[in-house]
Amino acid sequence: MMNTDSETNGMGAPVAPIPASAPSHPERRVAVLAVLLTVAGVSLLLASPDAGDAVVPSSLWLVPVLAVAFAVAEFSIFRFIFRRESLAFSLSEIPLAMCLVYLAPGPAVVARVVGAMAVILILRRPPLHKVAFNTGMFIFDVAIAVLVFRGIIELWGPGDHHFVVAAIVAMIVCGIVSSIIVSIAIAQFEGQLLSRIASELRVAWWLFVVNSTLAGMVLALALISPSLVLVALIPIALLWYIIKAYGVLDQRLRDLDVVHGFTGKVGQSLDPYEIIRAAVVETAEVLRSDGIAVVVFDEGNGATFEVHGIVDLQLPTDARDPDWRSLIDSERAVLVPRSELGAIKSAGSSIAEMMVAPIRDGTGVIGLLIVAGRTGGSRRFQPDDLIRLQNLTEQLTTSLRKGLLHQRIEREARLDGLTGLP
Questions:
Q1: Contact 351, 325 (CB under 8 A)
Q2: Which ranges constitute the DSSP H helices of 48-127?
């Protein structure tokens, strides 16, 4: 594995150093973690008190209802930035709290896994190792929640107020454990396990408390009368909307800051080569990519390029390259899935998908900004990533056009326009 600054990839371009803390074959390690979580979860469920019975007996129709609730919670998840950290806001604690009281552990696992995984498989289509990890984590989540909840009830005795408090405590513990497990999985790709766990818990602890308390409040209404749950849906929906609106606005402001920072970095020089070197490094950081390439087409035939990281692609040799023609002619940044990479993909390439943005000025396309693959547990780009890439490309176009113009003026000043001699 390449891990030094002096190494190059197959195209002779520098390879980005790989952190020493990031292990090889992370997908395999995550798959092993998924198996361990599944085995541990099933073992804990079997060992829980009265594993075959619900705390408050209910009809089996509640299983599909709660499965749908888990599906809705999974579908409505969104991320927002708090204290420079990305947090996920989810309402899955509410149906999980209901499961703890009204379902036996087995049906609770069925509702959790079936509801959430249906959304994940249909809408997100993750790789196999991530499917296994999510399934194992959901089973383990339910097991931890059941163990804590029933342990408290066994200690305090039954009672509606005990159910509510026990559910809140179980949700908080479950949130903390889930956060640690997710950090362990992400660390298999990016390293820095301990700092990642510490950062996540330091920033997100209040979210565990808020979501768990909200779930306890809904459970309290359900214990009074199930129909009162419908009353709770109104403030819950409003809370979800407000936090999501805040997240969207905050992300737009952060994107604006990113664009300004990018512009400052690539605009520090009028040398085209320094501009594109700064562009690939900054783009890799902003979009968390495994590999970035900037291709600049010559005025005649040919092209020059700068690569950051590993880009397993047959880069275009000129603006008329037939394999890249449709991407060169595109008006804006586009997402290209693996199935459509075709001839531009190098042999043995592991790229899941890539993004390409044409660098256009008033004369036409002068180059391409290519983002090949993404780091981290999520190997897929999001729609917002395309918007960010387009914004970065527009800023790069301005700086690069100035640099090329400056280079041309310098060349013409040194050389005779007719003979090309000094």
A1: no
A2: 62-75, 93-102, 105-119
| CA 125-128-134 angle, 5° bins | 80
Per residue in 47-100, pLDDT (tens digit) is 877 777 899 988 889 999 999 999 998 888 866 555 545 566 788 999 999 999
| 62-75 helix and 93-102 helix, angle to the nearest 10 degrees | 160
Q: Identify which of 154, 65, 164, 172 has the alpha carbon closest to the alpha carbon of residue 108.
A: 65
Q: How far apart are CA 239 and CA 242, in angstroms?
A: 5
User: Angle 26-47/160-190 helices, nearest 10 degrees?
Assistant: 160
Distance CA 411, CA 405 (A): 10
> Tens of pLDDT along 167-204?
999 999 999 999 899 889 888 877 778 887 887 788 77
What's this model's pTM, rounded to 2 decimal places? 0.67
Kindly give, in sequence order, each residue whose CB lies less than 8 Å from that of residue 144, ignoring residues fewer than 6 positions away: 41, 44, 170, 173, 174, 177
Alpha-carbon distance 174 to 138, whole Å? 10
Contact criterion met (CB below 8 Å) for 141 and 181 = no
Whether the Cβ atoms of residue 66 and residue 96 lie closer than 8 Å to each other: no
Q: How far is it, in rounded angstroms, from Cα 136 to Cα 138?
A: 6
Q: Which residues are registered as beta bridge partners of 337?
A: 353
Q: Which residues contact residue 5 at a Cβ distance below 8 angstroms, ignoring those fewer than 6 apart?
A: 14, 17
Residue 403 to residues 299, 398, 422: CA-CA distances in angstroms?
14, 9, 22
* Cα–Cα dist 7/25, whole Å: 21
Q: Positive or negative, the Cα torsion across 146, 197, 213, 68?
A: negative
- Residue 153 CB coordination number (10 Å): 22
Q: Residue 285: its pLDDT value, please?
A: 83
* 289-297 β-sheet, strand order: 303-309, 289-297, 364-374, 353-361, 334-337
Residue 55 in contact with residue 157, Cβ under 8 Å?
A: no
Residues with pLDDT less than 50, the chain = 1-23, 84
* Of 349, 357, 283, 340, the residue nearest 312 (C-alpha): 349
Cβ-defined contacts of 223-231 (< 8 Å, 24+): 223/56, 223/101, 223/160, 223/163, 223/164, 224/160
Angle in degrees, CA 381, 400, 265, rounded to 5: 70
